[in-house]
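QA checklist item 7 of 12: single-chain prediction sanity check.
[x] sequence parsed
[x] length recorded as 195
[x] structure emitted
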Amino acid sequence: MSQVSKVAVLRTEFETTSQAIETALAQWKPCLPPKIAMRDDVLVLHGVEGEEIPEMARLQSILHNALAYRHSAFVYLYRTIYEYSPKHKLVQQHSHTALHHCVETTAARGPMGALLWPLFAAACEAINAEDRELARRAFSEIEERQGMTNIEEAWGIIQEVWKRLDALDDDAAAETDPDLWRKICAEMGVTIVFG
C-alpha cells in the first residue's frame, strides 16, 4: 500500500472517529434518579406535592459537574482535535457554557474534587471579561473549599495563558497553539494533576 493510500485511510478514520465523538457528546443526556427530571439544566422533582429530596442540592451540583465535563470536552475537541481558533464561535460557546456549569457546581456546594479539568480546559479559552470572571469565581471557590497547591498552580497557569493571549494581535491569537498551557507549565516547572 502506498504512503498516500495509508494517509487517506488514516485521515478517513480520524474524521469518522472525531465526528462520532462530536455526535456522542451532542446526544449525551444524564441518567437521573426516578422522579427527577431536568429542565433547562435544573433538576425538578416529579411526584407528591411538597415532597422533598434532601440530596437535591448535591444532585444539582453533580449534574452541573457532568455538564461542565461535556462542554469542556467539546472545547477540547474543537481546539485540540479540529484545531479551531480560540475565537471560533463553537469554542467560545462551549467554553462559556462549561465555565457557567463550573460556577453552578461550586454554588451548589456539592463535590468538586474532579472539577479542575473542565474548569481548566474552558478557562484556557476564555477571551472575554465575563468568561474570565466566571473562571475566577470557580477557581476561588474551589481553592477555598480544597486549598490545594495544585488548584493554585492551575490558576497561575490560566492567568499566564490569558496574559500571553492578550499580548497577541487578533491574527496571532487565532493561530495560538491549543497546548500553550503545556509550554507555560514547562517554563514554570509546574505539573498540574487533573484527576
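[x] summary fact logged: DSSP finds eight helices and two strands in the chain.
[ ] second reviewer sign-off
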